[in-house]
Design a protein that fits this description.
Strand order of the largest sheet: 3-2-1-4-5-6-7
Number of strands: 13
Radius of gyration: 20 Å
Shape: globular
CATH superfamily of the largest domain: Glycogen Phosphorylase B
Structural class: alpha/beta
Oligomer: single chain
CATH topology of the largest domain: Rossmann fold
Largest sheet: 7 strands, parallel
Distance between the termini: 22 Å
Strand content: 15-25%
CATH architecture of the largest domain: 3-Layer(aba) Sandwich
Order of helices and strands: EHEHEHEHEHEEHEHHEEHEHEHEHHH
Number of domains: 2
Length: 358
């Protein structure tokens, strides 16, 4: 008997993949044949295509619509058109029961093709305001699930539901002892994990490394610096351990961490919130983004679960001074974190998705 098929899509950043990673084991347990449409070279290719043996990965052409002038703005629409044709061919061949889109520009041609093929599409939006890819996809979707209640103001009310966050269960299975083994730390000092996103953050990397001597007088530092951003000069610095990017070891590194310094992507914030790790958020500036991280950070600051430092404030004083003040707020932040609801389980989210089939 042929197994039912589910098709997932989303990519460009780890945040556009992590929810899909959480859902895949549930679909597998329910007997689904799982397929994923992503780009040829995005992070979804590494996280899903190269590391999920139970998932069939399909790579298509994709393009990005930029809010600034770039010559690629003239060529990327053709890539999107090619991706649409490729996605349509895949969808017509597979005939999945439903398509779940996490967003990112690779998802746009998939959602458009799904409408032509008359396959229901469910979209998930993690930020306060929908990203451009999801905005473009909204008219062609059957339903959109949001993490924030405020997001419902920006989407059609007749086909939107706030579900809250979905967190990968394996993040709760980390062992502090294993995290200490991986880093080589002894646990005598509080540990800060620094996360600049899957692509890293140049301004955050510089702030940490510039003041590393003072920081490591008080803290041990786990630094996820992004691909291609390892610093040879800091490689053997006592109390400092750097990684380009981590996957299987992340739960252990988080379990070993007392604090987190992070960009303000929604998925990362909700993961830290669920693990009750006090967070110092450094959102992307409006000049570098559409402002979604600024909105995310402002919300969590308003409910007392995060300290926020804007990019333009980083260079005003040594970063070690900011971390000392952050440490003093630890109990206040944790107390407010404990008052928040725990996120949806992947099983609950899968049930909500499959309810949209008809």
């Amino acid at each position: 008997m042929k197994r039912p098929i589910i098709l997932l899509t989303g990519g460009g950043t780890a945040g556009h993949v992590s929810v899909n990673e959480a859902l895949i084991p549930v679909f597998h347990e329910r007997g689904y044949e799982i397929h994923y449409i992503g780009s040829h070279d995005g992070i979804e290719k590494e996280l899903i295509g190269d590391n999920q043996p139970d998932v069939t990965y399909h790579a298509i052409q994709s393009g990005k619509l930029r809010r600034y002038f770039s010559m690629k703005n003239f060529t990327d629409p053709f890539r999107v058109g090619t991706g649409f044709i490729q996605a349509l061919s895949i969808i017509r061949r597979l005939r999945p029961e439903i398509i779940f889109s996490k967003g990112g520009f690779v998802s746009v041609p998939v959602v458009l093709a799904a409408r032509v093929a008359k396959i229901p599409v469910v979209i998930h939006e993690s930020d306060v305001t929908p990203g451009l890819a999801n905005k473009m996809s909204l008219p062609f979707s059957n339903h959109i699930f949001t993490v924030f209640e405020q997001t419902l103001e920006y989407v059609p009310s007749g086909k939107a539901t706030c579900t809250g966050a979905i967190i990968r269960p394996e993040l709760f299975q980390g062992a502090k002892e294993e995290g200490l083994r991986i880093t080589g730390f002894n646990g005598d000092k509080p540990i800060i994990i620094v996360m600049g996103g899957s692509q890293g953050s140049a301004i955050l990397n510089e702030a940490i490394r510039k003041d590393l001597q003072s920081i490591t007088n008080t803290f041990d530092v786990i630094h996820l610096c992004g691909k291609g951003n390892l610093d040879n000069a800091s490689e053997n610095f006592p109390g400092y351990k750097q990684f380009e990017y981590v996957t299987d070891s992340l739960p252990h590194l988080l379990a070993a961490s007392d604090f987190a310094v992070s960009r303000a992507g929604s998925n990362a914030i909700f993961e830290l919130l669920a693990l009750r790790i006090p967070m110092l958020l450094i959102p992307l500036s409006a000049a570098q983004s559409r402002g979604d991280q600024l909105l995310n950070a402002a919300f969590f600051k308003s409910i007392g679960t995060a300290r926020v430092l804007k990019e333009e404030e980083i260079s005003l004083r040594p970063f070690s001074e900011e971390l000392v003040e952050f440490n003093q707020e630890k109990d206040y932040l944790i107390g407010n974190m404990l008052k928040t609801e725990m996120p949806k389980t992947p099983e609950e989210m899968v049930a909500l998705i499959m309810a949209q089939r008809n």
